[in-house]
Design brief:
With 340 residues, the protein is mainly α. Helices cover 73% and strands 0% of the residues. The protein has 15 helices and no strands. α1 packs across α7 and α2 packs antiparallel against α3. The longest helix has 29 residues. The model has no long low-confidence stretch (mean pLDDT 84).
């Protein structure tokens, strides 16, 4: 087996993984992820983007397994042109509340349509030049959110890695006239696969990632929703609910439940927690649960770790262990032993 053959086989596996991941992510977005902003435009853009990425990776799979010439295919070029604007529309719908569309937004659709007037060999270069503007747009968003960087280090790490992947893809596309086609397919498909792996891993490790990203942009771009709200009073009421009322013990506690108890909207409560505690609602609740668990681990030495996790509102021992390790840097058993 030559190195070239091995590279093709590994890349074929990676493209298969990213293709399946794109379909799973689309299914999860449409039927789950209820805390995301979902609009008809967002659903359409997400569907178009993920199906285009899946189609692109399927085309790369055909190259690795059958040697299909992709750059001479208008279908392949059309997919390349469609992905940048769908990413833009989906990103804008997810990141920004109350998106308003104007007549010049039609330009984002006209540019892909205009590609049909180009010769086939010109379309890939056109697609990547077209994508340069969207990469710049994404970079501007990151820059404008810099004030939130200290609060959301993991989210910005994810943003940064995703931006690097987009930059790598852009450089590859612009270097296309100087690259052998096989090197381009290998590098570009693997960059997409790595980006997909990054997204899947981030969502598995940190399920609140998307909701926190939405919160970051909402704080940075939207007007405060707390105007007219007695903020000190609501903070005191929130503390009463969590500290004395021990509502964190409810394993099904949600942003909507707490907002209803405080007579606030979910957006108002999100902003209140973020501005006062520097985190999103899920982490805020986890912090209260871990604070309570730390006390129980020391005061109730006969209680098992599983019992403590159940008493503090965690749905499983594994979730409790992960949250405890995240906040304290120790395992529950290690903390108990050290502080006994």
């Amino acid at each position: 087996m030559t190195i070239s053959t091995l590279s093709y086989q590994i890349s074929a596996l990676l493209t298969g993984f990213s293709l399946v991941s794109a379909i799973i992510l689309l299914f999860a977005y449409v039927f789950f992820l209820d805390d995301m902003r979902k609009s008809n435009a967002g659903r359409l853009a997400c569907t178009a983007m993920l199906l285009s990425l899946a189609s692109l990776q399927y085309a790369h799979y055909l190259f690795f397994t059958q040697g299909t010439d992709l750059l001479s295919s208008r279908v392949y070029g059309t997919i390349l042109v469609i992905i940048p604007p769908t990413f833009f529309f989906f990103g804008r719908e997810v990141l920004f509340p109350n998106v308003q569309y104007r007549w010049f937004d039609a330009l984002h659709v006209i540019a892909p349509v205009a590609s049909f007037a180009l010769a086939i060999e010109m379309i890939p270069g056109y697609a990547f030049l077209f994508g340069t503007a969207y990469t710049f747009w994404f970079a501007c968003i990151l820059y404008k959110l810099k004030d939130q960087r200290s609060r959301y280090k993991f989210e910005f790490f994810f943003f940064g890695m995703f931006a690097v992947m987009a930059l790598v893809a852009l450089v590859l596309g612009l270097s296309l006239p100087y690259l052998d086609a096989s090197i381009f397919y290998l590098s570009y498909s693997n960059a997409i696969s790595l980006a997909m792996m990054l997204i899947v891993a981030a969502l598995l490790i940190f399920p609140e990632l998307l909701s926190d990203i939405m919160l970051i942009t909402e704080i940075a771009y939207a007007k405060s929703k707390l105007q007219g709200v007695d903020t000190p009073l609501k903070i005191a009421e929130l503390d009463e609910l969590m500290i004395n009322g021990k509502h964190y013990e409810n394993e099904d506690l949600s942003l909507a439940i707490v907002a209803d108890l405080l007579e606030l909207s979910t957006h108002q409560l999100s902003e209140l927690i973020n501005t006062q505690h520097g985190c999103g609602f899920p982490k805020f609740v986890r912090q209260h649960r871990i604070d309570a668990a730390k006390k129980l681990l020391i005061s109730q030495t006969s209680a098992s770790v599983l019992s403590v996790s159940m008493m503090t509102g965690f749905k499983s021992q594994s979730n409790f262990y992960t949250a405890f390790k995240e906040i304290t840097g120790q395992s529950p058993a290690g903390y108990r032993k050290e502080n006994r």
